[in-house]
């Protein structure tokens, strides 16, 4: 519908409506005018037109009818015109009404459409407002910086979070080049490389990490991400993205990484990091002439410290040892803790093995003095194995195995020593593994037995006491020397169960012989430090005495100096308890351990046993002869008896008699013998 046309028609209709109000008046006025003119002019017109008076008289008679007829015709034509015009305008009006109705419907539809569009517009405005609010809230609540970089102008824009994170105002970095200049040097390459890829259309996205000095303190680690926006020609023109402060995350990652490659207790590199360093050292040897080395360090008897003093003391000891080792190895060498009480030193480059040997000696010297842990002084030592590469191997597993082998050889040689790997050691390790494997089943398979060796009174020449000696005969290995299997039993902890069996077996045999009236004082049983430090050892001894019925006065425990010094105070209390039961205590191998006169008077002992190494040399070495004589005199001065073991020749016996030694023991009189043989010996003595 044409609105303009509709308005024009409406205007015409309005005017027509106004005109219709004057139609009756118009007809009346015409009627009056015609009548007035008729009255005034009809007679003159007749007189002028018709000269005949008679005719005029006749016509005058009809003048009134003529007037009526004329007026009627005028009125008729007027009314007809009015009716025609009325019909025209009625049709016009009816058409306008229909058109108006249609227009009204169209306007109604348009109004509804406008209303829907208005409501939709309001809804979209609300959504837009909420979206803007969410965006603002996200910006305000997010830790990220929103950034944009114009690649053509190098203009750089940041959101307000940039200031919160770095402390820099938004106008302090207005170009990408300006920010790159202030990055940590090693972080620049990655960011520049990514930007170049964007410029050359090699990538649409990029991410990078870099450090920038903060205005607050230190450096901030930032993680930047961006996406390229291309222009109409498909060329990158702009990059937009986000920047996240990952400083705390990086610290956590660094801490996790540090913990993954460092020992949590000592802070030293752990096994993983050391292996990586060793791989690099093997790959990067400067020349074929240069060598490298691995020094494997194992603390001797560390388990005893943990078991007796507790893990707190053990941990503190490890820390102290770590610090001393770090100070001793030099800057170019690397030390790490690879587990428990084991340390490893990597020498990446050296001219020859003498350097490793000098370092081994230096490490041994660290352990000369006791470690002060809180109120306790703890003595410890280290066994060291050294392997040289490429001489002893060029792969990690071989070198570690060789270093471990050399370390165990140091332990076998008496501990607190260093030893270089030798190819012959591999055979020793194989035999050791066989011994350990079979030792685990020796008790169950009843492979152990006891031999006895007499101890002779030098005054009477008769048997004073006996020493019980453990023996092992294995179906695979044959007869295994105690010197081989006892250290392995101690290392593995099997010595406690084995020792328990020995105590019970010897007490039972002792009881049988005493019941038969054999004349000897005691049977000595060797006790390891592992047994002493076991909380159940006292119960083991008590049970053996009660079950066999042996008098404790017929039992003697032999303890070495080194065993006694481990957890000295606890051992003294335990030995005092045994002595209070009537048992005797002998200090074995005197002269090979601490040999301190300061503590000798504190020990609850009855007897000193001079080590065989001195007796072997008293006929050849005046020094050993004087030492042996001095030990005997010292012992007598503090009311201790002396046993010299290892007497094999008469000359040794005579010297010991002259020194007033009390008791001797050795092959000169008898080798260790079986139970039956020893019983025959005792039976012969009693006759």
Overview of the molecule:
The chain is an alpha/beta fold. The strands form four sheets. Strands 13-14-16-17-18-19-20-21 form an eight-stranded mixed β-barrel, surrounded by four helices. Strands 2-1-5-4-3 form a five-stranded antiparallel β-sheet, with helices on both faces. A five-stranded mixed β-sheet has the order 7-8-6-11-12, sandwiched between helices. It starts with a helix and ends with a helix. 27% of the residues are buried. Mean pLDDT is 85; it is low at 10-15. This is EAL domain-containing protein. It comes from Clostridium muellerianum. Residues 90-138 form a coiled coil. InterPro entries: Biofilm_reg_signaling, EAL_dom, EAL_sf, GGDEF_dom, Nucleotide_cyclase, PAS, PAS-assoc_C, PAS-like_dom_sf.
Helices and strands in order, then pairings?
Blueprint: H1 3-20, H2 23-49, H3 53-141, E1 144-150, E2 156-158, H4 161-166, H5 176-181, H6 185-199, E3 205-213, E4 219-230, E5 236-245, H7 247-261, H8 271-283, E6 291-299, H9 302-309, H10 311-328, E7 334-339, E8 342-350, H11 353-366, E9 371-373, E10 376-378, E11 382-389, H12 396-412, E12 418-420, H13 425-439, E13 448-457, E14 463-474, E15 478-480, H14 482-492, H15 495-515, E16 523-526, H16 529-532, H17 537-548, E17 555-560, H18 561-565, H19 568-580, E18 584-590, H20 597-600, E19 607-610, H21 612-617, H22 622-637, E20 641-645, H23 650-658, E21 663-665, H24 675-686
Parallel strand pairs: 11-12, 14-16, 16-17, 17-18, 18-19, 19-20, 20-21
Antiparallel strand pairs: 1-2, 1-5, 3-4, 4-5, 6-8, 6-11, 7-8, 9-10, 13-14, 13-21, 14-15
Helix pairs in contact: 1-3, 2-3, 9-10, 10-11, 13-14, 15-17
């Amino acid at each position: 519908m044409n609105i303009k046309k509709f308005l024009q028609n409406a205007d015409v209709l309005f005017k027509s409506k106004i005109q219709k109000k004057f139609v009756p008046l118009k007809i009346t006025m015409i009627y009056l005018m015609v009548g007035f003119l008729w009255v005034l002019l009809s007679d003159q017109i007749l007189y002028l037109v018709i000269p005949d008076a008679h005719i005029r008289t006749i016509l005058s008679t009809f003048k009134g009818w003529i007037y009526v007829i004329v007026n009627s015709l005028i009125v008729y034509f007027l009314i007809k015109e009015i009716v025609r015009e009325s019909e025209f305008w009625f049709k016009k009006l009816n058409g306008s009404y229909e058109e108006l109705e249609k227009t009204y419907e169209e306007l109604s539809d348009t109004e509804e459409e406008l209303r829907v569009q208005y409501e939709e517009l309001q809804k979209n405005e609300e959504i837009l407002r909420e979206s803007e609010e969410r965006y603002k809230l996200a910006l305000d609540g997010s830790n990220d910086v929103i950034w944009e970089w114009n690649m053509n102008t190098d203009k750089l824009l940041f959101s307000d979070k940039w200031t919160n994170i770095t402390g820099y105002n938004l106008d302090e970095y207005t170009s990408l080049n300006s920010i790159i200049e202030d990055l940590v040097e090693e972080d620049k390459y990655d960011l520049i490389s990514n930007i170049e890829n964007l410029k050359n259309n090699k990538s649409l996205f990029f991410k990078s990490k870099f450090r920038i000095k903060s205005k607050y303190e230190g450096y901030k680690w930032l993680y930047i991400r961006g996406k390229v926006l291309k222009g109409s020609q498909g060329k990158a023109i702009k990059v937009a993205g986000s920047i996240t402060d990952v400083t705390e995350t990086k610290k956590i990652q660094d801490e996790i990484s540090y913990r993954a490659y460092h020992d949590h207790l000592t802070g030293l590199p752990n096994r993983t990091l050391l292996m990586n360093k060793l791989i690099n050292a093997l790959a990067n040897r400067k020349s074929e002439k240069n060598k490298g080395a691995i020094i494997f360090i194992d603390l001797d008897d560390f388990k005893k410290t943990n078991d007796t003093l507790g893990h707190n003391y053990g941990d503190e000891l490890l820390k102290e040892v770590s610090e001393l080792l770090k100070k001793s190895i030099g800057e170019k060498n690397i030390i790490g803790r690879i587990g428990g009480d084991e340390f490893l030193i990597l020498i990446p480059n050296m001219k020859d093995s003498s350097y490793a040997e000098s370092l081994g000696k230096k490490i041994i010297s660290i352990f000369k003095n006791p470690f002060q842990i809180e109120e306790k002084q703890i003595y410890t030592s280290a066994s060291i194995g050294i392997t040289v590469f490429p001489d002893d191997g060029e792969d990690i597993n071989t070198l570690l195995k060789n270093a471990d082998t050399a370390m165990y050889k140091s332990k076998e040689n008496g501990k607190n020593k260093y030893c270089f790997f030798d190819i012959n050691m591999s055979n020793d390790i194989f035999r050791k593994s066989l011994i350990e494997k079979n030792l685990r089943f020796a008790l169950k398979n009843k492979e152990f037995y006891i031999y006895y060796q007499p101890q002779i009174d030098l005054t009477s020449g008769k048997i004073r006491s006996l020493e019980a000696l453990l023996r092992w005969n294995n179906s695979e290995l044959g007869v295994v020397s105690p010197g081989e299997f006892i250290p392995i039993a101690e290392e593995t902890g099997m010595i406690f169960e084995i020792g328990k069996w020995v105590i019970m077996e010897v007490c039972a045999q002792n009881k049988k012989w005493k019941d038969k009236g054999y004349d000897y004082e005691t049977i000595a049983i060797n006790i390891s430090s592992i047994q002493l430090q076991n909380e159940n050892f006292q119960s083991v001894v008590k049970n053996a005495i009660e079950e066999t019925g042996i008098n404790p006065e017929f039992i003697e425990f032999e303890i070495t100096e080194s065993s006694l010094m481990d957890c000295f105070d606890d051992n003294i209390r335990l030995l005092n308890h045994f002595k209070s039961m009537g048992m005797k205590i002998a200090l074995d191998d005197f002269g090979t351990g601490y040999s301190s006169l300061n503590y000798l008077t504190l020990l609850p002992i009855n007897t000193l046993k001079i080590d065989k190494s001195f007796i072997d040399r008293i006929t050849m070495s005046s020094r050993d002869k004087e030492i042996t004589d001095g030990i005997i005199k010292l012992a007598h001065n503090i009311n201790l008896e002396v046993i010299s073991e290892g007497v094999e020749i008469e000359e040794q016996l005579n010297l010991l008699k002259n020194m007033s030694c009390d008791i001797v023991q050795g092959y000169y009189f008898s080798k260790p013998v079986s139970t039956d043989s020893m019983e025959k010996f005792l039976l012969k003595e009693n006759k």
